[in-house]
Amino acid sequence: LWELSIRAVRHSDAGLYECQITTHPPTSLFYILSVVEAQAVIQGGEEVHVHTGVKLKLHCRVELATEPPQYIFWYHNDTMVNYAYSRPFLKVVGRPYGSTLIISNLTWEDAGIYTCEAHKAHPDNVTLHVIGEEKHAALHKDDGASDSASSDLSFSYCLTLTLLLATWLAYGYNEDLRVRSLDKQR
Hints:
The protein is an alpha+beta fold. 24% of the residues lie in helices and 37% in strands.
C-alpha cells in the first residue's frame, strides 16, 4: 500500500495526481486534488442597525470546510465573547459548522465590531450600530399626524442643509472671484 501525504497544503498543490502501478502493462489511477480555503460567513450585511432593548441573533457558518472546525470564537471589538464576557444577556450556541451569538437585551455598549473566527478559516465581521428608541420615534410617524419631535427634527435637518448649502455656495462663489481676480492680474 502506497500513500501520498502532503503537509501544509497550498493552492499550488491542486491538480491532477497519478498513482502508477508497475505492472506489465502499467496500471494508473488518477486523482484530482482541489484545494479550498474555509471561511467564516456572518449572515446578513456588513452593517446591522438595531434598536436598544431588542434581541439580536448573529449567525455565523463556516463554508468550504473539509471537516467541522475545532472551535468558533466570537469577538466584540477584539475581546473574546465566548468566555471573557460575563453579561447575563449574552449567549453563544454552537453547531458543527456554525455558531450563533445571541444578545437578549441590546444596550449602547453592545455597539461595535463583531468577528466570527473559526479554526482554519478566514474570519468575518459585522459592524453593529445600536439606535435608541427615542430617535426612532422622532424619525418615523406611525399615524401620519405631525408631532413636535418630528417637526423639530425636520426643521433641524432643513436648517443644517440650508447652512451647508449656503457655506458651499459662499465658498464656490469666493473661489470663483479669486480665480477671476487672478486672471485679471495676469
